[in-house]
Amino acid sequence: MSKFAAKAISALFAVALGFLATSAIANTDNDAIAERIAKVGSVCVEGDDCGGAAAPAAAAGARSGSEVYTASCSACHASGVLNAPKFGTSDWADRGAKGMETLLHSALNGFNAMPPRGTCGTCSDEEIKAAVQYMVDSAK
Ligand code: HEC
Prior knowledge:
binds heme C, 140 residues, mainly alpha
C-alpha cells in the first residue's frame, strides 16, 4: 500500500470518527464532511441520493407544448418530413378535425410514419398532449 493511500485511509477514518462523534450535536457540518469523504472514496449514507439515479423529468415540472414540440417534434413537423403535418399550416386544421382524442392516441402509439411519442421516451402523456395541442393551435 502506498504511503499516500495509507494516509488517505487514516484521514478517512479520522473524518468518519469525527463525523460519528459530532453528528449528534453538529448536524450542520454533515454536508461538508460528507463531501470530504466522497473525495476519498464514494460513501453513500442512507437518506442521501448520492448522485445516483437522475430525477425523473416530471419532477422538474411538466414541459410546455412549445418546449416539447421544439425538442422532439419539430425535426419532422417543422418542415413536413415524411409528409408529417406541417407546423403553422392548414395541415393542422385538417388533423384538428379528427379531434384531440384521436390525435393523442396517434401521438402516443404511433401512426404510419409517425413514431410512438414522436420518439420522446421521457415525455409524459400530458407533455405529449400539450405538444399536440400546440401544433393544432398553429393551424392557419
Ligand atoms: C420522425 C418524424 C416525426 C417526429 C419526430 C414526430 N412526428 Fe408526428 N407525424 C409524423 C408523420 C410522418 C405524421 C403523418 C402520419 C400520417 O398521417 O400517415 C405525423 C403525424 C402526427 C400527428 C397526427 C396523427 C393523426 O392521427 O392524424 C400527431 C398528433 C403527431 N404527429 C404528433 C407528434 C408529436 C406530439 C411529436 C413530438 C412529441 C411528433 N409528432 C414527432 C412524423 C413525426
